[in-house]
Design goal:
Chain B: This is NtaA/DmoA family FMN-dependent monooxygenase. Chain B: InterPro entries: Diverse_substr_monoxygenases, Luciferase-like_dom, Luciferase-like_sf, NTA_MOA. Chain B: Belongs to the NtaA/SnaA/DszA monooxygenase family. Chain B: Pfam families: Bac_luciferase. The structure holds 2 protein chains of 2 kinds. By secondary structure, chain A is α/β, with parallel strands linked by helices. Chain A has a domain of 240 residues: TIM Barrel, CATH 3.20.20. Chain A has 11 helices and 13 strands. In chain A, the strands form 3 sheets. Chain A has an 8-stranded parallel beta barrel with strand order 1-2-3-4-9-10-11-13, surrounded by 8 helices. In chain A, strand 9, helix 6 and strand 10 form a beta-alpha-beta unit. By secondary structure, chain B is α/β, with parallel strands linked by helices. Chain B folds into 2 domains: 339 residues, TIM Barrel (Alpha-Beta Barrel), CATH 3.20.20; 76 residues, no CATH class. In chain B, the strands form 5 sheets. Chain B has an 8-stranded parallel β-barrel with strand order 1-2-5-6-11-12-13-17, surrounded by 6 helices. Chain B has a 3-stranded antiparallel β-sheet with strand order 4-3-15. A two-stranded antiparallel sheet of chain B has the order 7-8. Chain B is globular. Chain B starts with 5 loop residues before the first strand and ends in a 5-residue tail after the last helix. The chains are: A alpha/beta, B alpha/beta. The interface between A and B is large, with 81 and 75 residues.
């Protein structure tokens, strides 16, 4: 046994994979993307590899190459399912693996999402989390019709309009997560007493109003759903710059970040740790996972050729906000080891194609990391918090 | 022609019908309870499973009401999970049209329909109260008189979203690289007094096209709403006379909306107690009633009419001498039934006459005047009664509401369903795969 901490591994599931031409691969199942069986098969494969969790992408809009609105493409996957329900549909037929659907903050009710994720935790017996996503596009806002957003059309954080919108959306997300967390605690664990002698089903003194008042919403509480099995399901967020780094440090259990290299990874981790300390959370575990898009094959030339072929099919070179890795699982294991030394506690791999690159992770990368003593050989806990080394937290409202 | 009976199974809810104090009562939250209940319903070849919803814990006299089951899971999340442990049974969920937005609800029902391969149903409800609104962004924004208008336009908007995909847009031809037949599928634009939305819907057409729509309101507006837009009504008129009157009224409204009688099913909620003999069932039914209406519950019920704190009254004693408080903030919050007491003074006078004539205590009166079981008897009696009521156009079937979680449906499934099947009025196996198939509704 070495003293090296084990790595955590997640995969990010989205459609037929992250490359726009992934759906045309021989093993792709583009006609099944809206069926339960497709998602069960993918999560079962991820579970076979003992991964910590899967994330499931989502938005309140159709996929588009234009992040600000619809495009006219007919050669890429379009259409999706609500991610929370996909996770719930998969939950009863899986065990061990964490289920982390994406939920949009900007246009949804924290009360509804709080009980949805609490319920996901019940139906998965303690494996739920959620990845919160802010939605800055006016097109997405127009689907819901409750608010208008400024027309920024840029993601450059140095642009004052972008910075202002980003600040506003993440401030709201901070409130939104705060409400979720309070609602999850609004029932003490032993609130349900079923006391036949006194006729009381609950001890009402163990149910708590949350009485949150913020700029965008006020929520009274308590939740209609009792405290979930994990107490607090995992809250995750993807972060690319200072505002979301601060959000992760302050509110999340898990941040997904997109470093270019090990040095950049170290800088990002430092920034998140500073935000964590500034929020008074220095004693809490906050995971920072590096995101990578992966093209994996048994030899590097095959991986490169496959990527080139996919790019040819798509008619453009694939680019991403995350580092794109092309090579073998051994080379990837080397890279992950190097980046872990920079302070990342795990990785979220975005398979370029499904199921091929997922199978390369479960059948190639995982055994390689196990050989190096860097990855689990069996699920050591039955909850997602357990897998991530997080204790079941005390209830903020409990007095004893 | 002999009508076929339709049956739904209502997961026991958060009112006093549900007897949590029974030693056999299980969890109302753990998924295993829902899975067991749904699997029993599917074993009985029932049409659908039904989940109610409430978006704020009930209060009385300013405190959380603690005598009944408290708490429930999220509707969509449980139904999606149940799709994993069942194959054919319909999955019906109550979702509020006041504290939601059409785009999100439409994608949630379309998703449920995909993940269950065509088994989703939506019971559209219209609570509007500011008390519930305190849990939501908009607060108590909707005047009571606008609730059906918002529900109507919400449902209309959702239907436009469901219909925004025809169903043939996805080609997914790997060889030619054509995923979509044409660009920009799912386009929609809707503007009215309540909603102003436009863009592209992101869930392609689901197996049923849209979920089966249930409606549960009983007012004139509610009945018109159902006659115009619903596929089934979840009514409370389970007795023969009231059932027939309701049935005739609602079916009679359909022509005005250009619809035929068979396009809207009338499915009253029905409780039941089954014994080996009618006499044994009657005895059991009384025991259950006494469990459902404890002395404390009787006082709380009385307070809901009297609209004042009566906690100093003895449930085994006489009715209060003071009169009900009419108007003002109600002592009970988050409970639809308190709105049914339209004339509290008249009802109180009637209850006093009844109590005096029969010598009833408060508890005995409450056992008498609050809902009794719909069907009490031997399996033969219950099967014959249901068949008779359906053939007599008192209903098209019933939504069964057991008093025990999770096993309360078992006696009905194991003992009554086979007799209905013998009578030739209930399916012995599912003929189709979708809920529309089970309910005999034409495909969209």
């Amino acid at each position: 046994m070495s003293d090296t901490p084990l790595l955590h591994l997640a995969v990010a599931l989205d459609g037929a994979g992250w490359h726009p031409a992934a759906w045309r691969e021989p093993d792709a199942r583009p006609a099944d993307l809206l069926t339960a069986g497709y998602w069960v098969d993918l999560v079962t494969e991820a579970q076979r590899g003992l991964l910590d969790l899967v994330t499931i992408e989502d938005a309140l809009a159709l996929q588009s190459t234009d992040r600000w609105g619809p495009d006219d493409r007919t050669d890429q996957v379009r259409g999706r399912l609500d991610a929370v329900q996909v996770a719930a549909r998969v939950a009863p037929v899986t065990a061990g693996i964490g289920l982390v659907p994406t939920a949009v903050v900007t246009h949804t009710e924290p009360f509804h999402l709080s009980k949805a994720i609490a319920t996901l935790d019940y139906v998965s017996t303690g494996r739920a989390g959620l990845r919160v996503r802010v939605a800055g596009s006016r097109a997405e806002a127009a689907h819901v019709g409750r608010r208008d957003l400024p027309d920024v059309r840029s993601v450059d954080p140095r642009d004052p309009a972008v910075a202002a919108l980003s600040r506003e959306l993440f401030d709201e997300a901070t409130d939104w997560v705060e409400v979720l967390r309070r609602l999850w605690d609004s029932w003490e664990d032993d609130a349900e007493i079923r006391d036949v002698a006194t006729g009381r089903f609950v001890d009402r003194h163990k149910l708590h109003r949350v009485d949150f008042t913020g700029r965008h919403f006020s929520v009274a509480g308590p939740s209609i759903t009792p405290r979930p099995p994990q107490g607090q399901p995992i809250v995750a967020a993807l972060a690319h710059h200072a505002v979301p780094y601060e959000f992760v440090g302050r509110n999340a259990d898990l941040g997904f970040v997109t470093p270019r290299d090990a040095e950049h990874a170290a800088a990002v981790v430092t920034e998140i740790r500073a935000a964590q300390a500034a929020a008074g959370r220095q004693d809490e575990t906050v995971h920072v996972f590096g995101d990578l898009v992966v093209f994996l094959d048994d030899d590097a030339a095959t991986a490169r050729a496959r990527r080139d072929r996919l790019d040819d099919t798509a008619g453009a070179e694939y680019t991403s906000d995350a580092r794109v890795f092309t090579g073998t699982h051994v080379q990837l294991a080397d890279l992950l080891t190097e980046w872990a030394a920079a302070g990342l506690t795990g990785f979220r791999l975005r398979p370029a194609t499904l199921p091929h690159d997922l199978r390369q992770v479960t059948g190639g990368l995982v055994p390689e990391l196990q050989r190096r003593g860097l990855f689990r050989r069996a699920y050591e806990a039955s909850t997602l918090r357990g897998l991530l080394g997080l204790p079941r937290p005390a209830n903020r409202y409990a007095t004893v | 022609m002999t009508k076929q009976v339709h049956l739904g199974a209502h997961f026991p809810g958060v009112n006093n019908t549900t007897v949590w104090s029974d030693p056999e009562a299980g969890s109302h939250i753990e998924f295993s309870s829902f899975a067991r209940f749904a699997q029993a319903a599917e074993r009985g070849r029932l049409d659908f499973l039904f989940l109610a919803e409430g978006l704020r814990l009930r209060e009385q006299n300013g405190e959380i009401y603690d005598l009944d089951v408290v708490g429930r899971p999220d509707t969509f999340t449980v139904l999606a999970a149940l799709a994993a442990v069942t194959d054919r049974i319909g999955l019906a969920g109550t979702i509020n049209s006041t504290f939601n937005e059409p785009y999100e609800v439409a994608r949630q029902f379309a998703t449920l329909d995909h993940l269950s391969a065509g088994r989703a149903a939506w019971n559209v409800v219209t609570s509007w109260d500011a008390f519930t609104g305190e849990n939501f962004r908009r607060g108590g924004f909707l005047p009571q008189e606008e609730r059906y208008e918002r529900a109507r336009t919400f449902l209309q908007t959702a239907h436009e979203l469901f219909d925004s995909w025809r169903g043939d847009e996805i080609v997914a031809d790997k060889a030619t690289g054509t995923f979509l037949r044409e660009p920009r599928p799912g386009r929609f634009a809707h503007t009215d007094a309540h909603f102003d939305i436009a863009g592209q819907f992101d869930v392609p057409r689901s197996p049923q096209g849209r979920p089966v729509v249930f409606q549960a309101g009983d007012s004139d507006e509610g009945r018109d709403f159902a006659a115009a837009q619903a596929d089934a009504i979840f009514s409370r008129h389970s007795t023969r006379e009231a059932g027939q009157a309701f049935y005739a009224d609602v079916k009679g409204r359909l022509a005005r909306f250009g619809r035929r009688p068979e396009e809207l099913l009338i499915l009253p909620a029905a409780t039941f107690v089954i014994g080996d003999t009618d006499a044994e069932a009657a005895e059991l039914a009384h025991e259950v009633r006494m469990q459902q209406v404890s002395g404390q519950t009787a006082i709380r019920f009385l307070e809901q009419l009297w609209n004042r704190d009566l906690s100093d009254h003895d449930p085994d004693g006489p009715l209060p001498t003071v009169d009900p408080v009419v108007g003002g903030q109600h002592v009970a919050q988050g409970r639809a039934s308190v709105r049914m007491h339209r004339d509290p003074l008249a009802t109180a006078a009637e209850w006093r006459r009844l109590a005096e004539a029969k010598g009833f205590s408060i508890r005995e009166l409450m056992v008498e005047v609050t809902a009794r079981q719909s069907f009490v008897g031997s399996p033969e009696t219950v099967a014959a009664t249901i068949d008779d009521l359906v053939q007599a156009d008192a209903a098209d079937g019933y939504v069964l509401v057991p008093h025990l979680t999770p096993g309360g449906l078992d006696p009905f499934v194991d003992r009554v369903v086979p007799l209905l099947q013998e009578r030739g009025v209930f399916r012995t196996d599912y003929a189709g795969t979708t809920l529309r198939d089970h309910l005999g509704l034409a495909p969209l």
